[in-house]
From TrEMBL:
This is Ribonuclease H protein. Residues 108-170 form the RNase H type-1 domain. GO terms for molecular function: nucleic acid binding; RNA-DNA hybrid ribonuclease activity. It comes from Sesamum calycinum. Pfam families: RVT_3.
């Protein structure tokens, strides 16, 4: 039952309403069975439905249920009186890599999680004023929050810069290269340190565009 409910929507996830409801039904069926067996309370399917609804209303009142968990079923949420504020998508931002001053190194970092919490990753890249990559890094963090991932990305970058003698160092948040690295780290759960000769494929193309001053469009 749980399997069919979960995959009855293309928006399925561990916390989607279609995943939660069958577990609530099973739980309250169990409590009703126990009440009937040990306390003589008549078994009632109506009571099970009322308990499930009551529990959902409690979660809604506690702001634990969000519109994301009702994706594809917001009309059903409205029937129960659950109103969610519409999220206005942020406009994409234009990011351009700016080279550091001569003799300086620049650290770009990024951290993200697939859900909050969810599978998280931290990444960064250190380049000189000519755009030459001295090292890049990716760290899988298991389950974590985006804030933890962001802080870990900066900490790991500073640590690696110190270890490899890459100073003086200027820090800047995400750009195209760091964004690409962290998406790989979070989704594939990668942990590795890369040097210039290790970089290939899409990342090499992004770095080439950075050196030419081509802006990167980052989705909001």
């Amino acid at each position: 039952m749980v399997h069919f409910w979960r995959y009855s929507t293309p928006f399925h996830s561990d916390l989607h309403i279609r995943t939660l409801i069958p577990f609530l039904i099973l739980w309250f069926t169990w409590t009703q069975r126990n009440a009937a067996k040990y306390r003589g309370v008549p078994f009632s399917t109506d009571s099970i439905i009322l308990e499930v609804q009551r529990h959902l209303r409690t979660l809604y009142a506690a702001r634990t249920l969000t519109s994301t968990q009702w994706k594809g079923d917001l009309h059903q949420a409205a029937v129960m009186g659950f109103i969610f504020r519409q999220q206005v998508p942020r406009a994409p931002s234009i990011i351009r890599w700016h080279a550091p001053s001569p003799s300086w190194f620049k650290l770009n970092t990024d951290g993200s999680s697939l859900g909050n919490p969810g599978l998280a990753g931290a990444a960064g890249i250190i380049r000189d004023s000519a755009g030459h990559v001295h090292l890049a890094y990716q760290f899988e963090l298991g389950t974590g929050t985006s804030v933890l991932a962001e802080l870990t990305a900066v900490w790991r970058g500073m640590e690696l810069a110190l270890t490899h003698g890459l100073a003086p160092l200027v820090w800047r948040e995400a750009n195209g290269a760091a964004d690409h690295l962290v998406k790989e780290a979070a989704s594939l759960q990668l942990t590795r340190v890369l040097h210039h000769d290790d970089i290939t494929g899409v990342l090499r193309g992004i770095l080439c565009l950075d050196r030419q001053g081509v802006p990167y469009l980052r989705q909001g």
